[in-house]
From TrEMBL:
<dbReference type="InterPro" id="IPR004839">
    <property type="entry name" value="Aminotransferase_I/II_large"/>
</dbReference>
<dbReference type="Pfam" id="PF00155">
    <property type="entry name" value="Aminotran_1_2"/>
</dbReference>
<dbReference type="InterPro" id="IPR015422">
    <property type="entry name" value="PyrdxlP-dep_Trfase_small"/>
</dbReference>
<dbReference type="GO" id="GO:0008483">
    <property type="term" value="F:transaminase activity"/>
</dbReference>
<dbReference type="InterPro" id="IPR015421">
    <property type="entry name" value="PyrdxlP-dep_Trfase_major"/>
</dbReference>
<protein>
    <submittedName>
        <fullName>1-aminocyclopropane-1-carboxylate synthase-like 1</fullName>
    </submittedName>
</protein>
<dbReference type="InterPro" id="IPR015424">
    <property type="entry name" value="PyrdxlP-dep_Trfase"/>
</dbReference>
<dbReference type="GO" id="GO:0006520">
    <property type="term" value="P:amino acid metabolic process"/>
</dbReference>
<keyword id="KW-0663">Pyridoxal phosphate</keyword>
<dbReference type="GO" id="GO:0030170">
    <property type="term" value="F:pyridoxal phosphate binding"/>
</dbReference>
<feature type="domain" description="Aminotransferase class I/classII large">
    <location>
        <begin position="5"/>
        <end position="222"/>
    </location>
</feature>
<dbReference type="InterPro" id="IPR050478">
    <property type="entry name" value="Ethylene_sulfur-biosynth"/>
</dbReference>
């Protein structure tokens, strides 16, 4: 396509699929990159969030040798594995002095403050607590939450990728789309949002096929129960709409271009659709979300005192 590729990016464990690369896969990717003189950026930010004992994570840095050490760069941070995204602390391992110097120059303006460095150093030194207490508890909670969400999906008859790492499940909602288009995916995404469930649609991940969504399950049980109830409500309503449309379809041939139901008329009137196909992008999602947040009275109704 006339684009010069400079680097290969690997996220291991993967987001949004939850896949874990095997050692042989990692070796193949690194050898491929070496043959084509590509840098490899390996992001292992979910490396400690493999919650099933049957799965084994292999870090690139655990390999016997790196095929091209000067072009292999490994990143990790505490925001995911330790649930402290607000601290904004990450690490970069590279043997390439030019890359290290460039990152060091950026740190003049984007460095990690001294108190945070000190606290993180204290945390990471306490390996007994991390290995014997924290990770065991975290993995057990992640596994329990994942089991609950996937069991609910099985009950609903919804296909999904069953993986054992990360915080997310990649779900197949294609059967709930009237037409296999990203515009229809956006309508379903908005239906979830109207019912106070914020999922990530496949379009946001450059998915090649409409109808895939990512759900985050790393939360407490009572919130997951409420979220799955709302998802069930949306899907059941969607099924009824599709069935009703299929029954009415022979009688609707003279009404092309009209909305199929009163609900659809209301739904379309509440949301401005993009003026051209393909313009529904992440910016549209963010703009819509900001608009709904500004117009919502949720914060007024749900006070801290009420939650307490």
């Amino acid at each position: 396509q006339g684009v010069t590729v400079r680097a290969l990016i690997l996220l291991n464990p993967q987001n949004p699929l939850g896949d874990i690369y095997s050692l042989s896969e990692l070796r193949d990717y690194l050898e491929f990159a070496k043959r084509h003189e590509l840098h490899v950026i390996v992001d292992e930010i979910y490396m400690l969030s493999v919650f099933d004992e049957s799965a084994t994570f292999h870090s690139v840095l655990g390999m016997d040798r790196l095929p091209d050490p000067q072009r292999t760069h490994v990143m990790w941070g505490i925001s995911k594995d330790f649930a402290v995204s607000g601290i904004r602390f990450g690490t970069l391992y590279t043997e390439n002095q030019d890359v290290a110097n460039a990152v060091a120059s950026l740190c003049y303006f984007h460095g990690v403050c001294g108190p945070v460095q000190h606290k993180v150093a204290q945390l990471l030194r306490d390996r007994d607590w991390i290995n014997q207490v924290y990770l065991r508890a975290n993995h057990a909670r992640l596994k329990a939450a994942h089991t609950y969400v996937t069991d609910e999906l099985k009950t609903l008859g919804v296909p999904f990728l069953n993986r054992n790492a990360g915080f997310f499940v990649w779900i197949d909602f294609r059967k709930y789309l009237r037409t296999g288009t990203f515009e229809e995916e956006m309508l379903l995404w908005r239906r979830f949002l109207d019912n106070k469930v914020l999922l990530s649609c496949g379009k946001a991940f450059e998915c090649s096929e409409p109808g895939w969504f990512r759900i985050i399950f790393a939360d407490k049980t009572h919130r997951l129960q409420l979220g799955m109830q709302r998802i069930r409500k949306v899907l059941e309503g969607r099924e009824q709409e599709i069935l009703a449309e299929e029954k009415e379809q022979p009688c609707q041939s003279d009404q092309d271009g009209k909305a199929d139901s009163t609900d659809e008329v209301i739904f379309v009137s509440r949301h401005q659709e993009p003026t051209c196909a393909g313009s529904s992008n992440l910016g549209d999602l963010i703009g819509l979300l900001q608009q709904q947040m500004r117009s919502s009275d949720w914060l007024q109704k749900n006070t801290a005192e009420q939650f307490a």
